[in-house]
User: What shape does this take?
Amino acid sequence: MKTILHAADRRGHVSFDWLNSHHSFSFGHYHDPEKVHFGMLRVLNDDVITGGSGFGTHPHDNMEIVSIPLYGAIEHKDSTGTNAVINENDVQIMSAGTGIKHSEYNHYKDKETNFLQIWVFPKERNIAPRYDQKTFKPEERINQFQTVVAPDDDNAVWINQDGWFSLANLRSDFSTTYKIKKEGNGVYVFVLEGNVTVNGQSLFKRDAFGVWDVDALDIAAITDAEILLIDVPMKVE
Assistant: This one.
C-alpha cells in the first residue's frame, strides 16, 4: 500500500474580495512540486464565492471538469449554449474536449456559495465538448457510497475517464469497506465534514488522503462525517 497525506492546513490558499479558495494541488500562483496531481486527478479547488461574483468567461480544453456545490448555487454558461444553475446536491461535469469557453457565477446576490472544482485528465483527447448535470438524493448516501460520477453508470454523470466519484454521509461509529473500481486505480479521499479513519489514518475536515496499490479501503467514522472519494487511474499517459 502506498499513501500520501494532504492536511487541510497545508493546502494552497488565495483570497480576493470575491473569492476565498484552497487548492489541494498546484494551481495558478500556487505551486508545490510534491502536489501537482494524484494520478489522473489534476485539480481540487475548494472555492467560496461572495454573492453576485464569480469567474468570467474563460477557455478550457482536454480536461474533465466536475463541479460539486456544498452550499449555495452556481450559475453556469458555456459556448455550447448551455445555461444552467447547479444547486446543492447537484453534480455537474463538463468535458472540455477540443475546446470550450464558460463562466461560473454565484447564483445568489446576497449570500456565499461554496463549491468544489475538480479537474481530471481525460481518457480520450479532442472529443466534442459536452455537458451533463444531475441531482442526487442525500438520503441515498447515508452509510453507503453514492456514485455521482462514472464512465459506466447511467445514474451518475458520465466522465471521459476510468474514474468514479462517490459521496458518503457516515454516522458516528459506522465502519465500511470501499472496493477500488479498477486495477491500477488509486483513491483520493477528501473529508468534507467530521472525523474518519481510512486504513488507520485519522482525517479531519478538509484533510485528504491518497491511497494506491491496494484493492480496498477500510473507512470508519469517528464522528458523523461526509466524505468524497475520487477513484482514478494512477498512471498518467
Q: What stands out?
A: The chain has two domains: 12-122, 138-233. The longest strand covers residues 41-49. The mean pLDDT is 97.
